[in-house]
Specification:
Oligomer: single chain
Shape: globular
Strand content: 25-35%
Number of helices: 8
Helix content: 10-25%
Largest sheet: 9 strands, mixed
Structural class: alpha/beta
Number of strands: 15
């Protein structure tokens, strides 16, 4: 049977993971077309700015929770057997305050605020935090073994895995999703397009998804080492600010965050927010500075990224647009890495539904 030609639009973690899973199937010829590629740093390219890690916020019993659950075995395998991918295990602690439950951020992070979230049966070493560790500020919390991803290593690693499977990468700034069908590396029209454009889906012709919006995240990357990856459910600095920190694999530094500023497109650093981020991180994890103040943080750089959030949840669907079959996989918000394999597996199934005759299925 002839190989089907597919163009994946977008080279963030969603696009690269989808391209890799497709390329593992010998029946497909894959081109990845994107404005931004691994190694780029741009406000329109969300993936490099991510933490990135695995602590699900999806609601129990939903398809999103299934995608997260299906991603864990893949990330766990990378941490165990593929150190070159830039993924490593970290002890993780989640601290929750009862007063955050009814906040807009608390509702967004509702699963993490539960004493026993659904992922307790997925991740290793899940256990409640002791009263001594919680102190008087937190009402409940839990610890488990998770992973943290050095995005500066992992995105190029995904690209290299794709290249080893014959995927061809092309720079392209597309105005309409159907234009992708005309830029397959064979020179022939693609049989199908996979749309992994993230926030750009809001303006891409043929898609123009008005349910897309940014959630601005600001971070500080430091050389200091953390003894645990941790987060709190909220702060006293406003409903759009949160505290988390994670040490990236392979000397990638420790990322301090952050903010969840809905509808905020600002790419510029907010110095006052940066100071609050650092103060909260040092308070939550004194080991960062040996119990000293933020002046003892060794800053590598500040970061601003825009999470590609979608009202109604991640869109993984198939449709025919102006005669071009398209599979969508975008709108992952702040959980693109921790749902990446589950979402890409779903997208792969939709591709097969379109391209493989029903008699074969």
């Amino acid at each position: 049977m002839a190989q089907a030609r597919i163009v994946v639009v977008g080279a963030g973690v969603a696009g690269l993971t989808t391209a890799l899973l497709l390329a593992r199937e010998s029946k497909y010829l894959i081109t990845v077309a994107a404005k931004h590629m691994p190694g780029d740093y741009d406000i329109q390219y969300a993936s490099p700015w991510a933490g990135a890690n695995y602590w699900p916020i999806s609601e129990a019993g939903t398809e999103a929770a299934e995608w997260d659950q299906n991603t864990w075995p893949e990330l766990e395998d990378l941490a165990k057997h593929h150190p070159e991918a830039g993924v490593h295990f970290q002890d993780t602690a989640i601290y929750n305050r009862s007063k955050d439950v009814d906040s807009s951020l608390g509702k967004y992070l509702a699963e993490k605020l539960k004493a026993e979230p659904w992922y307790k049966d997925v991740v290793p070493n899940f256990r409640p935090l002791s009263k001594e560790r919680l102190g008087t500020q937190y009402s409940n919390g839990h610890a488990f073994t998770s992973v943290c991803i050095n995005t500066a290593i992992y995105l190029p690693w995904l690209a290299s895995q794709c290249l080893s499977k014959g995927v061809v990468f092309k720079r392209a700034n597309l105005k309409h999703v159907c234009d992708a069908s005309g830029i397959h590396h064979t020179g022939r029209k693609a049989d199908l397009v996979v749309n992994c454009t993230g926030l750009s889906a809001s303006e891409l012709g043929g898609v123009e998804d008005q349910n897309m919006m940014p959630i601005r995240g600001q971070t500080v990357l430091v050389r200091n080492e953390a003894d645990v990856m941790c987060s709190s459910s909220g702060t006293d600095d406003g409903d759009e600010e949160v505290c988390y920190l994670m040490q990236r694999a392979a000397g990638g530094g420790t990322l301090l965050g952050g903010s969840y500023q809905r509808g905020n497109w600002d790419s510029q650093l907010d110095p006052s927010l940066a100071v609050r981020i650092m103060k909260r991180a040092v308070e939550l994890c004194p080991a960062l500075t040996g119990g000293k103040g933020i002046e003892h943080l060794d800053i590598i750089r500040h970061g601003v990224g825009l999470r590609p959030y979608r009202h109604g949840g991640t869109r993984i669907e198939k449709e025919r647009i102006d005669g071009v079959w398209t599979v969508h996989n975008y709108g992952h918000g702040g959980f693109g890495y921790q749902s990446s394999y589950g979402c890409s597996q779903k997208a792969l199934k939709l591709v097969e539904e379109v391209l493989i005759p029903r008699s074969v299925l």
